[in-house]
Specification:
This protein folds into two domains: 10-210, Rossmann fold, CATH 3.40.50; 223-336, Rossmann fold (3-Layer(aba) Sandwich). It contains ten helices and 14 strands. It has helices at 41-46, 51-54, 72-86, 103-113, 136-147, 236-243, 264-272, 297-300, 310-320, 327-336, and strands at 10-18, 55-65, 93-97, 120-123, 158-161, 164-167, 172-173, 182-183, 190-193, 196-199, 224-228, 248-253, 276-281, 303-304. It has an eight-stranded mixed sheet with strand order 2-1-3-4-5-6-9-10. The longest helix is centred in the first third of the chain and has 15 residues, at 72-86. It is globular, with a radius of gyration of 21 Å. Bound molecules: asparagine. Asparagine binds next to loops.
Length: 337
Amino acid sequence: REAAAPARLAKVVILATGGTIAGAGADAASSATYQAAKVPVEKLVAGIPELKNLAEVRGEQVFQIASESFTNEHLLQLGRRVAELSASADVDGIVITHGTDTLEETAFFLNLVIRSDKPVVVVGSMRPGTALSADGALNLYDAVAVAASSDARGKGVLVTMNDEIHSGRDVSKAVNIRPDAFRSPWGPLGMVVEGKPYWFRLPAKRHTLNSEFDIARIQSLAPVEIAYGYGNVSDTAYKAFAAAGAKAIIHAGTGNGSVSNRVVPGLQALRAQGVHIVRSSRVDGGGFVLRNAEQPDDKYDWVAAHDLNPQKARILAAVALTTTSDSRELQRIFWEY
Ligand SMILES: NC(=O)C[C@H](N)C(=O)O
């Protein structure tokens, strides 16, 4: 019998954007005090020789920033590069190294606008590589394992952190400092163990190839801001955002996305001026906002963000408003994505 030809290693591109996974501290005990976005991608890759058993890897430095400084322009530039690479026959999967603070926003954005079924995996770390028990190397190893795996195709943009594989739509940073920082309210999709992904569930919402949005058709994102709900709140921030040109304001509401009676008239007036009001919830670990519960959305022509947290609601509204300014369309999109 002839021996089977050895399987070709997948080709994976690592797009590096900075964050703690590229961070460096003064000594090994500095796990929380360090500078993010210091180490270049070549060094990150060279630090994990085991990557070459998983894939043919090459790195590309896109930015070198902490993720709290990401702007819409960074999202668009990164998205265009991911689209280009995913269209190339020479690329099987893409990994994006990213700071963890806004990782959930970038992952959701790419999940909405990248028209490809090739694996795109966003990864970060909670400790810099210089720290004791640094988590970045294993997280990156897991990300490359997932990006190289044909099983990961068509599952939308994914996030690997702390051995788990999450949907980029669902996942968010739930705690800081600790390496178990990322949670999905509906659970992770799977796990990576010793460089092999294991899957347990699939995303139910529209994404990537099944999305109506396409990075190729987006010149700029709509200006969308977030205002926080709390006791003794006023409508000052909402009005200021609208005056500065916001097309939609995400209300990071208390509980069910409730709105203080001190703020309701101001938001009605802003809607009458054309600004969209999207009610989300500030609760951590799984908000759930229903239309016409707490506030009469039909009457006020407001939108319910359903289970999307305020920062994810901002991303969806900023993308959706590039194709529609109709509130019913906006609401449909909030149910479907
Ligand atoms: N753990 C991290 O990556 C935090 C860092 N501030 C960032 O988001 O870039």
